[in-house]
Amino acid sequence: MIALLIRDLRLAVRAGGGFGLGLAFFLIVVTLVPFGVGPQGDILARIAPGILWLGALLACLLSLDRIFALDFEDGSLDLLATAPMPLEGVVAMKAFAHWLTTGLPLVIAAPVFGILLHLPASAQSWLVISLLLGTPALSVLGTFGAALTVGLKRGGLLLSLLVLPFYVPTLIFGAELIRRGAQGMATEIPLLMLAGITAATVALIPFASAAAIRVNLR
Amino acid sequence: MSLWEYANPVKFMKTSGFLLPWVVGLAAITLVSGLVWGYLFVPAAENFGGSVKVIYVHVPAAMMAINIWGMMLVTSLIWLIRRHHVSALAAKAAAPIGAVMTLIALITGAVWGQPMWGTWWEWDPRLTSFLILFLFYLGYIALWAAVENPDTAADLTSVLALVGAVFAALSRYAANFWNQGLHQGATLSLDKEQHIADVYWFPLLLCLAGFVLFFIALVLVRTRTEIRNRRLGALQQRERMA
């Protein structure tokens, strides 16, 4: 499993900016928002949680179709499926590698983007916590969508249509957590719900993804 | 005699062919009488005016929108567990109907919301979760359309229906938490007291039954079409092989 993780990470880094691409996309989204809504600090501060979460969501979506597609094309996915390791474990590791290359950089860089959008200092820690708790769910749900569409020639657009509705609960609780944190309100409910969704998806979705991959390899 | 006999396409075609005219007839009678009763013979309610009559379409459509996904969930499970093709095809046949029901509920809701709340659209939890449900339907239909091998498509969409059901419900509660709504709470329920006067309730009941029957008739027709389509494909393939 560790070997698979390292292989995936190495592929992501060497195949052209696995780490950088998501971050650069995030930066572009954050740069474009003030052009769209105007440079007033108070408006930006109010919509910052939503923008940052939407940016994370889209950045995650960008790299999803690569999770299985390359392995499917060159046949290594068949090898992984017949390997002694359970396919569920393979899927979970793939999701983890995806999170390490897209989710984690966003979490680390998020405070900088928060400053760009005038997010109050009190909300910065909530921003990091919320992204740290929520982005693993994005990656795991993303692998499910990628597993469903792996055999398709033009799966990209369909993948977004399938995956984005699954992101709704995470998005709601994630953005709500930052909003409440920024206003000094009670944050327990969104915090627990966000953590609960992530824990449940990490535990259960790999089974669904593995089932979908088995169907697609048949 | 067991329910699983109808998993045999020949048996299903025979029985559904016999049932279909009856279901269509019953659906037409209940739907027409319910709607005529509701629209022409029910007094306008205070606080609501004439606009109350939209419930005779809005409520049944909304109910069907949710329950059709439930039906797809059950048929998908049957397909995954027992591999009966009719079941998978019934789920496929139901999805576009569900999407249209969701759309009808959203549109009639907008038409009703305009005079009542003064707005066509509000980011209310119920409205929002219906929009999300609509997206789930679209994704499901798109996945069916995108996968070429029918068995692969049936498997993948079944998994999607299962996971989607969980997330559609989750989105509903998340949306509840996210925004306080304008939409009134549940009026109809099986175990609690009714909050609706009998004058409005009886025609509504007829409309509910009519929508259910209408849905059954549509699903039967569409499933029969799918089965015939599948047969045609098999015949064509055989011809090509020969």
TrEMBL record, chain A:
Source domain of life is: Bacteria
Question: How is this protein positioned relative to the membrane?
Answer: Multi-pass membrane protein
Chief place of localization: membrane
- Location relative to the cell: Cell inner membrane
**Which ranges does the record mark as transmembrane?**
12-37, 43-64, 95-119, 125-150, 157-178, 190-213
Pfam families of this UniProt entry?
CcmB
This protein's GO cellular component annotations are: plasma membrane
Function of the protein: Required for the export of heme to the periplasm for the biogenesis of c-type cytochromes.
Protein's name according to its UniProt entry: Heme exporter protein B
Q: Which organism is it from?
A: Thioclava indica
